[in-house]
């Protein structure tokens, strides 16, 4: 196992190269670039190509397709954080006359607005954006295919609307807002709307013969916020570091965490979608990121936040190579071979005796819980034995705590005291927690039987 900051072991590097080589061969991609980042540092990159003596590298541009959507989502969250919009706002409040104005910004971000998956014919990915000069040309005569808010239904036109929302609120083109607010602060100088050399050309490979056909690379026009961008493995790993930790120059860590929270359930139990980010769970791990494809290109970007590992795979082939799957496997190779070394345990820098006195055993009815003190006056309430509803809580300025997880997310925990200042119970969203089960004298809803606990003899 390596120490933090060291390079990967030779065996791990070989395993990564082997997986990338198999992907290029079996996916019959003219070229492929892959790269892995750990703890914010590029630790491996590799490439394979059908061109003898020449290979792309982590600075070679490929088209990244729908990974563009994550950038658009960041721009929208920036508007929210500046108070210019609210995620619950109907689109019509900021962008008029779309025909889909009743859907909310939140629904558009999470693909639950009920909009169609694609723009009307002709196939928008292989034709010039000039064929769709107005939003009506993107949405078509029947923009909605499902009731808003009822289900996740992936929508490329939905992100066209979000890009137009950014332009309407900012007063500048989407590309300018992107460059000024994300690309320049993060140092992503090789991410552009149009290809800049060195870049790969897009190819289709015949399904039944090893022959190729050049694919067009169109300017998508209004559809650009859904899939226009070109980028490199190096640049995308910079973006991955931001998606893992946040960056106050672009978006605070709390807003990035919000992007990673499921916004609407998908029809597959092992995946979900946040606000511009795909979520994949399995085998005890959670990956965040996005996939992308346009004719001639496939791309995958995945981040394991817990292990602080990110991987990118870019290839210039229309189909046959599952870039997203390969990128996830690269993350898994590193996480399994060289798991992250945990930080040493350290005691709290200071302790509040009043809070310390709250820790220990509490009961909700006859259910037993433990309360622990965390850093920054936080609390953690867990069922005894680990099964059931539990949560961590962050302290507020008013002497209460707010739940951060699952059932209790957003719920308020408060300490209720008697007239003499002693603690009577904890109140969590109206649930009463007492030191003893149905503690006599405590303010238990419905009261406590005055006869107390008793046995039974038949």
TrEMBL record:
It is an enzyme of class 3 (hydrolase). The keyword Hydrolase applies. GO terms for molecular function: hydrolase activity. It comes from the Bacteria. Residues 25-334 form the Beta-lactamase-related domain. Residues 351-435 form the DUF7586 domain. Keywords: Hydrolase. Coiled coil: none annotated. This is Serine hydrolase domain-containing protein. Its EC number is 3.1.1.103.
